[in-house]
Amino acid sequence: MKIPSGASTGGGLGRGLRSRTALLLAFAFAVMADPVSSVAYAIEAALRALNGDLALLVPTMVLVVAIVALVIVNYRQLVARYPRGGGAPAAVGEAFGDGWSFIPIGALVVDFVLTIAISVSAGSSAVIAYFPALAPWRLLLGLGLVVLVGAATWFGHLGRLVFAAMTVAFIVVSIVVLLYGLGAAPKPLGTITGAPLHPPVLAVVLAFPVAVAMATGVEAATSAVAQLGQLDNDGKRRFGQLTLWLTLAIVGTITLGLALEAAQLHVGIPPEDSTQIAELARLAAPAPVFAAFQLVTALLLLSAASSGFQAGPGLLKALARHINRNGETVGILPPALDRTNRHHTPYWGVAVFIVLAGGVTAIAGGNDQELVLFYAVAVFLSFLGGLVSMALLARKERQPGFLVLNTAGALVVAFTLVANLSRGFPIVSLAAALAIAGLLYRAWTKAGRPRGIRNAAAEAEIV
């Protein structure tokens, strides 16, 4: 049912506004589950890259939040340009041709696999931080959660309201922990060093790319607007852009708040059976609040994993049943990936992602910190494609302001991507994304190059 934009009576107008507000909050808090959940591991990843130097943690996280802000400001344009969804693949397809859109699509596939793997691994870490006796079973716990979350998706997608509730619960309990932390006495915990491996500025520059995995999920709003069938294009633009601003405000506030209190209370690199934010909550808050914090953290991370199980198989399904501009179904992937059960779940796609995410989780030993760099590469490859494309389109359309903004964003994203790739192993994410893009391009060519494939990311949200 279409949400009313107004009515002839004051009561009708009030109900319409309330309905729109409720829809916006449900949509926004569900979409931001990914970036909010990344707080659970991104701050710790930055501190590890700083070799435990707490004095540089806050400047590093300020830089990370600034980069997230730059990406969000640019991605507001993607929402404005593609209110029916599409994100980076749509922009790349328009700027360079449909065939090039497979690069960000390949990056998104890797992103969804890593979203599941890192979220269940971080969820396992949250559980182990409260029940240290489970530490020897970390890998089995992580693999079990992959199967459990995937199986839950198999029997029907968790609703957006569930994701929104988990996000709100984490935000509320995090604020409570931060408030308690204001009156807590400092107590050195974990590994803290006062002698960084590099001069301060260089140390920050080398460390911040590790934590930019926090930007993951920013692209979700650009495609998820396709779900808002109740709204016209203007309404989708407003909802998408407001969601991006809310994401920046909430993620930035919680991130900087936790980083500041970690530095103030001297919470360093945690032991193997805990996490930095768990140690902070344990020190700052009473036992019941600490227990609640670990619970909502684990649930939010599992919700983020579930979102990967929705988005990934949905994208495969869209590619298997792509509808071209003539209304003809021209799939480029095997038809089995288009099959759904009575709960409308593409079960073969779910099975594919269970296997892939389970394999990645096993390779990482169920350790979320081992996956952070790989995750950042996949996310920023998609960002780079979107921003370069927007810069090219701004140049063609003679929009100098947008050209400067998009170019600045692309340069910062490119630097971050190169910095992460220079660490060596994360190049695996780049290779995987390009390999998937190549395979999809070949399948697209064999299918006769159906037009409009750039919109697959949007189709994935509505099929």
From TrEMBL:
Keywords noted in UniProt: Membrane, Transmembrane, Transmembrane helix
Membrane spanning residue stretches: 21-43, 55-75, 137-155, 162-181, 201-221, 242-260, 280-302, 347-366, 372-394, 401-419, 425-444
Keyword ATP-binding in record: no
Name the record gives this protein: Amino acid permease
Organism annotation: Arthrobacter ramosus
Organism classification: Bacteria, Bacillati, Actinomycetota, Actinomycetes, Micrococcales
